[in-house]
Amino acid sequence: MFAVILITLSFPYTTNIAKGDIVFDNKDTVLIVAPHPDDEALANAAVILDSVEKHADVYVIFVTTGAHNTDTILKFFPMPVFSSYLLAFKRYKEAVSSDKILGIPKDHLIFLGYPDFGMMKILTNPYIDYFSGITLRKHVFEKWSVDRGSNYDFKVVYSEILEEFKNIKPTKVFYPAQYDLNPDHRAVSILTQAALNEINNSKIESFTYFVHANGWPTPVGYFPDESLNLPKFLTEQPKWHVETVRLSQNEIAKKFLAIRAHKSQYLSKPKFMLSFVRKNEIFTTNQCLKLSEKLPLFSKEIMRKLELTPFVESASVDSSSDFYNIHFTLFRGVPHFSKINIFLYPEKFGESFLLMPKYRLEIEKGVNNLLEIKLFDRGKVVFFEKESLSGKFKDLDFNVSIAKKYFENADVVFLMVSFEQFDLRLTETPWWCINLK
Ligand SMILES: [Zn+2]
After folding, report:
1. Is 290 inside a domain boundary?
2. 368 and 232, same structural domain?
């Protein structure tokens, strides 16, 4: 069922990266958005320790239960439903212990309880309740979750994240990078960015962190005297601004203990987790890309190994008088019975993201290289005039033009392309945020 292919990022190094140190003070309210219990300790322990030391308020939102880790789930418990519940409980307890070491009180830890490995499905199907093959449910059941009883539903998850942002009123937000290899991280990144755009408070500083990137962190293992370096991918982006938080010897020791407190995870991947015990943590200030800019992609080397599957080799979006034009070039042809989906979620700053369209363009190659296109908004078919939406296919180049009126004067659009065959997702691009203004 789960055919989302994890892909790697690799790009050559360049040097046009600006660096700075993040400074906390007692007026700060720091919010960390963690897709899974352990992301806060792996990527943000220094943020937490520094904030606590400066008497800033610190909160963590755990979006999923973390109960998908099949290694752990099979090792510890034989029965699927109980296994996921028990593993979720174990991970909840581990998070509480870990964050106690870092200095966060239990009532500042918010467990939403959504399904591990379900967030991308929820994001790309914003009109149906997701059924998790892990929890065998469509709703949050875990009794420590603030959203107990809520459906695994896009509107609910997004509203909850937005609500927490409004309650907590953070001054600094740390959330996953949208180019992380883990699909939950990418989905949570987009939900967080959308919530930040909706709140539209220029005083909130936001930073993204990586947990999963190709060949990162290097070296692999416990090297507390080494610095955490950038995933290679980031270095190719000329506009990335990279920020650092440094750790003292004492803080490194605490981070080590906090990571080990996530015992169930530590047992299955100790070397990987210890690779985050370094002298520093690194973040980027996330920026939306401009129209016509080349869109960052996952590594071609790894994608080429996925035999027979098509994938995007280059992509961009530009604007002509009344249209936005999406261009992409494939590495190999689209096999029979496969579909290309283009997800387009426009957003206006300061306005409701839920009220805006959530488009999915479904594309199949027809006769004479014309593309058969269907347009859906939140799962419902949208009828459109031929002049307002068209697609052209030549060799491996795709061009899709969509009238600007469909974007309802949005400031940005979140965009992703995926390939499916027999309803099985073969490959997908990262989600991009593109500035339309
Ligand atoms: Zn994670």
Report:
1. no
2. no
